[in-house]
Amino acid sequence: MAIDRSDREFHFTDKDFAVIKDLIYKRAGINLSESKKDMVYSRLSRRLRANGLRTFKQYLNLLNDPSSHEQQEFINSLTTNLTSFFRESHHFDILKDFLVSRESPVRIWCCAASTGEEPYSIAMACIEHYQSFTPPVEIYASDLDTKVLAKAEKGIYPVERVERLSDQRLKSFFFRGKADNSGLVKVKPELQKLIRYFPLNLLDNQWPFKLQFDVIFCRNVMIYFDKQTQYQVLKQFLPYLKDDGLLFAGHSESFPQASDLFSLRKHTVYVKADKARIKS
Ligand SMILES: C[S@@+](CC[C@H](N)C(=O)[O-])C[C@H]1O[C@@H](n2cnc3c(N)ncnc32)[C@H](O)[C@@H]1O
């Protein structure tokens, strides 16, 4: 049954959606299904309002204007940033076990860091493992979305975001806001010092590192990519991951098409495939 959308504030055609779908795929690798039309309309309507525009056609023209800053806002609007502290908590136990045998400094890259809960969880796990607020660890945290990265760097969260953490973790790693800041928590500066934040698009064909990582966290971002893009990104990880390093993926992500690059060790944790070790 066709749904009547005539009550919409902005006229939004199937062609507009097709152009947007193509643009976000090319710029971010995000593969939008037809079911995302309403989501796209609602998120981009805000951008039309912010720019004082009246039609999607005008908005798409703005995106083609090289002097406009709207491109980044467009990307920020269409990313999905759902995350939480110690999401898929077994991964942090696996990380701690892995740290036992590593030489320092241990370098960890969290490549879809969103609002920071994941890199801060990595930092907490490292502090707990080494029993020190200055563990021999460097954490690099990136994301394509500049808005979430700014939130991550601040490290301030509504108290509900931490309510499933143990009292011990809350006490060790967070300050509770008082007065005007009640209802908020802030991560302690010792954690922030362990993490370097920077924008990075996994689709870029060059990344700005001259080093190799012991661990790459790439969780719950590949699900937005098609198989071909996933393969490309995984291939590009190879020279940046030590031969005996670990790649953490999200719980619903698997890469059978890339079995020449990575092999599953357990619980969506991957290691380089034998052949890939020799080549990279
Ligand atoms: C659902 S969140 C996952 C956050 C975290 N890794 C976790 O598992 O909780 C996906 C993140 O991937 C980021 N992202 C999407 N496309 C990207 C790309 N091409 N390059 C880098 N990050 C991307 C989004 O901005 C978003 O913050």
TrEMBL record:
Signal peptide stretch: none
Organism lineage: Bacteria, Pseudomonadati, Pseudomonadota, Gammaproteobacteria, Oceanospirillales
Protein name (record): Chemotaxis protein methyltransferase
Gene Ontology biological-process entries: methylation
Top-level class of the enzyme under EC nomenclature: transferase
Binding site residues for S-adenosyl-L-methionine: N81, T83, R87, E118, D143, N201, L202, R219, N220
Record's function text: Methylation of the membrane-bound methyl-accepting chemotaxis proteins (MCP) to form gamma-glutamyl methyl ester residues in MCP.
Organism: Oceanospirillum sediminis
GO molecular function: protein-glutamate O-methyltransferase activity
Keywords assigned: Methyltransferase, S-adenosyl-L-methionine, Transferase
rRNA-binding listed as a keyword: no
Pfam families recorded: CheR, CheR_N
Reaction(s) the record says it catalyses: L-glutamyl-[protein] + S-adenosyl-L-methionine = [protein]-L-glutamate 5-O-methyl ester + S-adenosyl-L-homocysteine
Record-annotated CheR-type methyltransferase domain positions: 5-275
Record's keyword annotation contains Zinc: no
Coiled-coil ranges from the UniProt annotation: none
InterPro entries listed in its UniProt record: Bact_Chemotaxis_MeTrfase (IPR050903), Chemotaxis_MeTrfase_CheR (IPR026024), CheR_C (IPR022642), CheR_MeTrfase (IPR000780), CheR_N (IPR022641), CheR_N_sf (IPR036804), SAM-dependent_MTases_sf (IPR029063)
Domain of life of the organism encoding this protein: Bacteria
EC number in record: 2.1.1.80
